[in-house]
Amino acid sequence: MTKQQFISQLEKAYASYLADIVLGKAFASIVLRGGKNDPVTTIELHEQMKFFQQSEKTETKSGWTIEWEEWNSKKFGRQQWPKSISVQEESDLLFLLKKEKETEVFKSAVQMLTEWKPELPQWISQNVRDILPLKEVWPSLKKVVDYLLVNDVKEFYLRSIPVPVHTKFVEDHGRVIVSLLKYLKPEKFSSQISDLESLLDLRRKSFLFTARWLDRDCAKTFTNNMVVLGITPEDLQVVNWKIDKVILTENETSLYQLPELKNTLALCSNGKTVSLLKNIPLLANTRLFYWGDMDDEGFLMLNHLRQFYPLAQSVMMDQPTLDLHEAEITIQPVKYKNIDMPGLKPSEYAAYKMLAERNGRLEQEQLQHLYISKCVTD
């Protein structure tokens, strides 16, 4: 076993030692495992003996305690060899790891934290690795936690909580703040929630879907001539636009591949965020189309969309599209999941299975422009 492997054992024991300090437990001796295999060569014998003896405890020096035993070797003759190696005292562990000063800083930090909240020793003992790295920010963390323990902040965004720290501080230290809040006030803060925004029921930045009017008259009538705009799911739920079609595209680039079309809105569903588009009257009351990449994720999104809108139609996601663009089919970077997709129609499922068999994909951007125009306007 190498010196670093011995140090790794000591580092692990050090973390337990720090926890014991917090809980007021006496130092427990540490027995080091392994590393005493018989040497094979004379050079190896001398190197290992030197390694063991360099850190051995003496009357004037701290270190590990070695119990020696006699070893009779045909190759090396009679030798002394370690029977056991242990660390008997706190000072020995700190000497071996060069942690004397660090431990004093740790003890000071623990004193500061327990004076702030006397009930914290158990939490500190479970989170000893956080104490020293955060030593410079504990004063600010205490202020934030004190404020959050007694104030309702659900009307604020994460970076607008009125605490005396920089705007990113709470976000940067969210994990520790969550842990402290749940420990100090479990009746208020759920143990099942690990996300700070959810734990505090904060307001969240609304997601913006990019939309493009394919009919400039609609842009004039409904959005003050804005042809391309960003719109939240909440706003989509209340708009009263009298139009005929909505085309959802998986990728934003594809919005601009679509030709002009009367009474039609194109909306980028951003792939996996399609779930944010459920319960939208505009989508339920118009002819709804979906155009995505022909790959595992694209068909999965189409299947998902039909859970909300069973009458939604796909466009350019079938076997004829694949046949025309055979040369553009590539290999997707991950294997197909091959999960059941009951929402797909036979022509869509046939295309999906063909691609799955070769782990292929046909991206929206690879389709011929004239083909796109023909499919959308037919």
From TrEMBL:
Pfam families: DUF3322, JetD_C. Residues 8-181 form the DUF3322 domain. Signal peptide: none annotated. It comes from the Bacteria. Coiled coil: none annotated. InterPro entries: DUF3322, JetD_C. Residues 205-369 form the Wadjet protein JetD C-terminal domain. This is DUF3322 and DUF2220 domain-containing protein. It comes from Pinibacter aurantiacus.
